[in-house]
Amino acid sequence: MPHSAEPKPFRAGYLLLLLTSICGNALSQPVFQVPPGFKLRAVAGPPAINFPMFASLDDNRRLYVTESSGNDLYAELKEQVRKCQVSLLTDTDHDGVYETVTVFAERLTPSMGLVWRDGKLYVADPPDLVTLEDTDGDGHADKRTVILTGFGHTDNGSLHGLTFGPDGWLYFTTGNPDGYDLHGPDGSHTRGQVGALLRCRSDGSGVETISRGFENLVEIVFLPDGSIIGTDTWYQLPESGVRDALVHLLEEGQYPIHAVDHTVTHLQFNAVLPPVALFPAVAHSGLEIYHGTTFPIEMRGNLFSAQHNARKIVRHQLAPKGSSYTAETFDFITTEDPDVHFSDVLQDTDGSLLIVDTGSWYVQHCPTGRIRQAPARGGIYRVSFERSSNPPAVEITPPRSSTNWFADLKSTNSTIVAAAARMLGRQADTNAAPTLNTLLGSPDSALRLAAAEAISHCGSGASVSNVLAALAGDTDVFLEHALTLALYRLASASNLLSALDNPNPKLQRAALLLLEQPPFQAAPASAVIARLNATDLSLRDTARWVLLRHRDWGDAGAGFLRQLIQLPNPSDSDRHALSELLPLFATNPPVTGAIAEVLSPANQISNDDRRARLLEAIAALDLRPLPTPVAGAIVELLQKPTASIALPAVRAAAALRVAGAEEALARIGRDPAQSTALRLETIRELVRRRPSLEPGQMEFLLGQISGTNVPTARLAAAEVLTSAKLNSEQTLTLLKAVRADPIIAPGSILEAVQRTGLQPDCAVALLDYVAASLDAGWTFSAEQLAKLQGAIPDSQRAAADALIARLDDAAARQRQQLTDLAPLLKGGDYVRGEKIFFEKGQCLTCHRIWENGGRVGPDLSRVGAIRSGRDILESVLIPSATIAQGYDTLNVTTTDADTYTGVRAGSTDNPLRLRLASGTEIVLHPNQIERIDRSKVSLMPEGLLKNLQPEEIRDLLAFLQHLK
Predict the structure, then answer these.
(1) Helices (H), strands (E): how many in the chain?
(2) pLDDT at 292 over 60
(3) pTM of the entire structure?
């Protein structure tokens, strides 16, 4: 892994540097770790500046800083609240500290990007990209010009990352779901919904999208060879604790989390570009490439990025990897202070780095504690390397833009040649084509990539043979991508059809991919079908990708699906193809017949593994009405279930609403020989169909709550009980069973009890239950309290009011608990803590560490790298204070009047995969959903620490902080 918790060079022996607070409150006295030989000092802070976000230097070393209002960024963007500003900081005596601060511009929306160029400050002011000018030299902007407008402004993915490239164009980034719809003054136009890298000329003309597919691409830098590296937050859905990335950006590059922007027509690839380096959920922000000469030589040319969540500035040392790069990452500036959040890093002309700490105001989607007295207001720091001798300072200037790229193209330095090729390509200079065609045959893969990127703009049909030759040679994924794009722009349909006959599978793959899409749209069905099971895996996957786009190829799709269904030993790719193709062709009569044939117990050729695999696939389909042969086969399987087929058959019957399955389900639910998981799933579906519980079902469910130490079984039993229609006696029994339970949330219990209509005896039991829940550490939302007040009869009003009075001071009690437990953040034994996490703490019920645990809550494999100890404690003690992005609690009501509470398990709502607290997944299609409400209450239990002794809590916290 590129990121490691192990010591690296310039990390061992870090100097602890205690800075006097510059933030004006007791919460902020940050202690920073800096490498040996480096000095860090505060150069600006409150009250002169507050909540700085991003910064840019002008030609005279004056610093422009965007400042937040410290309020809700999302609300201010959406509602166009203009409380932010740009401040101008000046170092009047040239000692590195900014003595004077003036307001350069105010009344801005939250601004997440700015850059100086030719006497103008380019500033993000969503929905606008503007220039600000000080025409009279008084230090205040008096001229505002909108150069582009049409940026979405609902999220932190709005306009940011402004920088000028060596080609003189302005580059900027956006995120998802804000989108953009931009019209340049020259008639140029681009739009999109997902995160993207865009560029335009300095006046807004020539606006275009370079690459797309990001959740939030934040900032970019240009390497000396002209290639682009960016910081990408949410490169992928979290897996094994990693989520964010450094990415190498290619034109029309496709990246995994939003591979297709369905709002626009664009070239699509069936493979995504890999990251340069992967990281935990560090929330990448600013990025800089170091061109100075004052840092140690091994740091020159390195990238430095601000990691907001991790409270770090990290150093990335790039190394060639094929035609692209890999990166080794080292901690550079770190702190354990929970109120420090780095947002930007930039190089000053004296070779030092300026570091921006935005403070602790930004809490939306970020692991910053919300229960605090006052947010830290951040500051700006300067990091310089202190040598043993003091040679004269070396003035550093950014890399110049060449005045003669053609001359550079003939250089003996491959880096200069690559940069020249890319710049000529971005200028679409067709005179460069002959040289670029030659470079496509270079033995240097990095040069071939630069030439391939350029030739798509500079070349013509005459270049196609060179592109095909390069593609047939030694390539990697980046080079294949760029060469395929060049074919898309330069080749004719006849060129591509000829490539299909070439024995090289890479040429066939590119031809199939491009012939499928506009402007060609001429992929021959026979050529696709012939390659559905090609021995070359990339060619096979491309053919399958093309088939997915052709519901009209019914016979071909049906025939291939029959093959997939009947494969005895399917690969992961075969399983994926089955799940992707079934929604398109499942209603095709031949396919329906194949499904029923494989599922039928009478089919001697089929087997239970094949049936189970198919049941899992069709359970995710929207098949209404369900074909009779398929429904009949599922009911038949339920009537005589085998051990391996029973659970997938029950889940399929539930998801597809198979009629006539009630008696078979009831027999399975009553059978003590069946597994607990199977009986729970079966009774869950029976209760959905028949809301009243049989005595045997009630006894079984209560037994799981009070008679087992398996958390998932207890939670699943509670989910079933609270969805049933209970009578008064059953309600009283339930309240007694779950009294003071540490993992069963009171919210669902309140809902279930209120549905019965509270009789006096139930009201007394309910109030006792609420009191016991409070003692166990649970809290209740305002909405829950209102429902409780409305349901309690007058005879119990005084007792209810007394309980509600206890709830009113919950926040104060929680703050006190945080204070009381804070000393336990130090001194624990993480080895003992690991045992508590995996056993007594019951944490694995919802959370995953590496390959172990549930997926209801965030993956904690690297939580210590992205959360401070204080914020970890707050999340455990008060889980609803800050809910991690992607784990919002959703309350879903279906058109059948069923209700479910859980978290989104996938990246799409079509269908919506809802993961309940027990880990059970419910698949709901759009036409099954009546409404979705977002809850402010986390699914995570609030009283887990009540079961632990102080030393056990200390050890558990040590373990969580150790996970990096």
Answers:
(1) 31, 35
(2) yes
(3) 0.87
CA distances 587 to 581, 719, 901, 931, Å, are 11, 33, 31, 27
DSSP for 590-635?
HHHHHHHHHH-TT-SS--HHHHHHHHHHHTTS--SSPPHHHHHHHH
Strand, helix or coil for residue 849: strand
Q: Which of 885, 857, 827, 877 has its CA nearest to residue 308?
A: 885
- Cis peptide leading into residue 47 (ω within 30°): yes
The arithmetic mean of pLDDT across residues 795-809, rounded, is 74
Q: Identify the residue whose tokens are 């003690």.
A: 877
- Residue 139 CA to residue 130 CA, distance in Å, equals 18
Q: Are 115 and 163 in contact (CB under 8 A)?
A: yes
Q: How confident is the model at residue 704 (pLDDT cuts 50, 70, 90)?
A: very high
Averaged pLDDT for residues 701-727: 89
Q: Is the pLDDT of residue 402 over 80?
A: no
Provide the Cα torsion 447, 448, 451, 456; round to 10°. Answer: -150
Whose structure tokens read 């709830």?
807
User: β-strands 921-924, 84-90: how paired?
Assistant: unpaired
3-state helix vs strand vs coil in the chain, percent to 5: 35, 20, 40
Q: Which amino acid is at 932?
A: I
What mean pLDDT, rounded, does the chain reach?
A: 88
According to the model, what pLDDT value does residue 816 have?
A: 79
Angle at 478 between CA 474 and CA 483, to 5 degrees: 70
Residue 745: pLDDT over 90: no
- As a whole number of angstroms, the longest Cα–Cα distance in the chain is 93
CA quadruple 402, 405, 406, 409: dihedral sign: positive
In this structure, are residues 960 and 872 in contact, taking their beta carbons and an 8 Å threshold?
A: yes
Strand partners, 182: 190
Quick one: which of 629, 595, 597 has its CA closest to 615? 595
Res. 776: pLDDT tops 50:
yes
Residue 788 one-letter amino acid: L
